[in-house]
Amino acid sequence: xxxxxxxxxxxxxxxxxxxxxxxxxxxxxxxxxxxxxxxxxxxxxxxxxxxxxxxxxxxxxxxxxxxxxxxxxxxxxxxxxxxxxxxxxxxxxxxxxxxxxxxxxxxxxxxxxxxxxxxxxxxxxxxxxxxxxxxxxxxxxxxxxxxxxxxxxxxxxxxxxxxxxxxxxxxxxxxxxxxxxxxxxxxxxxxxxxxxxxxxxxxxxxxxxxxxxxxxxxxxxxxxxxxxxxxxxxx
Length: 235
What we know:
Elements: H1 2-10, E1 26-27, E2 33-41, H2 44-54, E3 60-64, E4 67-68, E5 86-91, E6 100-103, E7 108-111, E8 118-121, E9 129-131, E10 133-140, H3 148-168, E11 174-177, E12 201-203, H4 205-212, E13 218-220, E14 228-231
Parallel strand pairs: 2-12, 9-13
Antiparallel strand pairs: 1-2, 2-10, 3-5, 4-7, 5-8, 6-7, 8-10, 11-14
């Protein structure tokens, strides 16, 4: 059970076009699609620095989630106007206007330009829990109205942000544990509880400082998750 949960944690997927039926890094065999993601923990102060990195390009706009009340979303230049944890990073140099389809049942418009944007799922900070965030892409290279040079621009933007995270953040310092199961080493039928340090989650400097201030603070994929992460003893 723990092995399944940990595997799921390492590859958690928002149910959107970015990662639907996706391998998280690589090119699809059936279409020329580049999919990649990087997971992180961002304290609000880490997020401020990351926001500045994103918006250093004056063509970049932020969009509040993938569902809108109008056909064309409002693009903003500050995270303070993004009300939820789902933010779309969109550059008008990559695509002039985001496209959407109307969903009659809920009277919303749903983004259909994920192939031309970066998905930014933000960390949430509570009294004792910080949640994982990530950035992800699913860039389509053979889309009918999206050229290969445009696709390469999106990939380059994502790779720049990923390099920044890997340079400034720390990894292999978080272990996952299911508190409802016994503490035990790995066996033929189950994974170790707690797990080995996870190299796939990158911890921002302010998030790391926040975690270190209280040993009771935990990391979760979402606030109600059972499996939780903590800093390794060596950190």
